[in-house]
């Protein structure tokens, strides 16, 4: 049987590839379970400092698998906690997760990418929430994360008209961190992930947690959270090493503690 999720380790980076090319990487339970299992493995591995999720050159993921869910009724979706059960594992990862998107990121695919900490897009990337065409609506964060990323006007436009946003517009609108020529997407994303993973792991996690607070709290609460975490960073051996290395004009050697 084809493995619908493949994993690789590149130095200190864990790479997850969604692998259903025959279905534009549509997300079903096996795919979402596979992504969750890969994240579990990479989170438990002290050597890994950053995780990348990618698809193939045609699609990151063209949404939840339409054939799989088309006959669901309300009770089935509710009782099985459709997708929610395994879906949120990306969100709960403590190490940074980067989505490397080429081609289509539609519906659940766009939502999966937005659940990651940042998106690097190939110049071929196309983002959209076209569920309205199927007689349904975004159900995994599209109506919530998209407006936070691109603002209400563009989010309404995309969710209500089903139009796609290309990579250039996505970068201009704040949905993606970088646009990269398609041929270099993975190489450049792995390079950035390797840079992140070269730093102190507890500091990486503290920064991720603090930036995410900005979406969950008022400015003052967020600033207080940041200040407390910043103060706690003085308890790290890696902070002593990082600052000593700067003063001694040498490269820091972090021990992740
Ligand atoms: N599901 C299943 N199969 C799909 C698919 C999908 N989402 N997208 C594409 N495929 C399949 C096509 O059926 C086709 O299969 P064969 O006919 O070859 O067997 C193959 O992939 C190639 O697709 P096309 O022939 O259509 O290729 P094109 O280049 O012409 O078009 C396209 C590419 C991506 C524009 C088009 O395939 C398309 O519009 N796909 C559907 C996009 C879409 O509507 N996505 C939204 C789906 S709804 C939730 C979490 C998530 C969700 C809901 C709840 N919870 C946590 C509660 C998510 C919902 C959705 O994503």
Give the topology.
Layout: E1 5-10, E2 13-18, H1 29-44, E3 50-54, E4 59-61, H2 66-69, H3 74-79, H4 84-87, H5 89-92, E5 97-101, E6 104-106, H6 108-115, E7 118-122, E8 126-128, H7 142-150, H8 152-161, E9 165-166, H9 167-173, E10 178-180, H10 185-197, H11 201-213, H12 219-232, H13 237-247
Parallel strand pairs: 2-3, 3-5, 4-6, 5-7, 6-8, 7-10
Antiparallel strand pairs: 1-2, 8-9
Bound molecules: 4-(N,N-dimethylamino)cinnamoyl-COA.
Task: Describe the fold and architecture.
Helix 1 links the parallel strand 2 (13-18) and strand 3. The chain is of the alpha/beta class. The protein has helices at 29-44, 66-69, 74-79, 84-87, 89-92, 108-115, 142-150, 152-161, 167-173, 185-197, 201-213, 219-232, 237-247; strands spanning 5-10, 13-18, 50-54, 59-61, 97-101, 104-106, 118-122, 126-128, 165-166, 178-180. The model has no long low-confidence stretch (mean pLDDT 96). The chain binds 4-(N,N-dimethylamino)cinnamoyl-COA. 4-(N,N-dimethylamino)cinnamoyl-COA binds next to helix 2, helix 4, strand 6 and helix 6. 4-(N,N-dimethylamino)cinnamoyl-COA binds at residues 23-24, 26, 62-67, 82-84, 87, 104, 106-108, 111, 130-131, 134, 139-140.
